[in-house]
Amino acid sequence: MALGTLDEYQWGFNGMFAKENGGGFLTEHFPEARKSIWDFYGVYTRSRHVPGVNFAGIMHPGLIGCLPSQELLDEWNKRELGLIATDPDRVPPLACPPDASTAHLGTLKGEAATKAAAEAARTVPPREHGGNCDIKDLTKGSKVYFPVYVKGGGLSMGDLHFSQGDGEITFCGAIEMAGWIHIKVSLIKDGVSKYAVKNPIFKPSPIQPEYKQHLIFEGISVDESGEQHYLDAHVSYRQACLNAIEYMKKFGYSGAQAYAILGTAPVQGHISGIVDIPNVCATLFLPTEIFEFDINPCAEGPTPYINGDDIPISEWDK
Q1: Full DSSP string of 129-186
Q2: Single pTM value for the model
Q3: Helix, strand or coil for residue 84?
């Protein structure tokens, strides 16, 4: 795989969805829509909206996968509609059901198009076929092994990102970019049965930004209200992210700016412990070398480097 930016579009954007439009990982804390612009300088990027950081990106397709069979599509709709039925009025919703008004059907026309639109899978989540996996390490030189469900495979891809933190936590959470991608395709006959493949297998690229210094923030399965959850990795990673955001706010960032850093910079998310009841220990690795100032703890305490309040929300879309 090889990919890059288009010469005439040396910039991208990071978005935070409004809660009613799907929100994000921390939507209860950041319910309003926001967008930050990031300018590209070769393999590096910086933002007029989030000063004080400059980092190398890991360009990758957020979405890549093969077409499902009719049987697999039916299974997706059955299980996801069943989940929605448990709390149909939830905001944001529990899943994204088929929506004929937003279906993109290519060359299909007439009755075939009507049928497809009524059952077509929304491409928001990852599924068995691949899909919107948002794996930041799927970059130049990487490989993916997909299960194939229909004749011809139906491989497609898109949603190119310049850089992203693990989890794409702001939802439109990477730096979305206009770009190109070149791939080579080959087939392993009966590979699904030979290798017991149920979901795609990824072989990452040897090309990675050389960030070796990190601050590591922990989170456990205790939510913001103090409620204990049982081995809940979602709660634990959310707490690790919130801990990192509160830390960065001490250096002058607004909460939204710190959130944008976690969504765009090459931060790493890990499940460090998942066996010791009742808490999962999730960790977030924040590379300190991306900052233009010293963000490490010291005896004197944090010194604000910027004033995030100088960039009001209304300026974020310019």
Answers
A1: TEES---TT--TT-EEE----STTTT-EEEEEES---TT-TTEEEEEEE-EEEE----
A2: 0.92
A3: helix
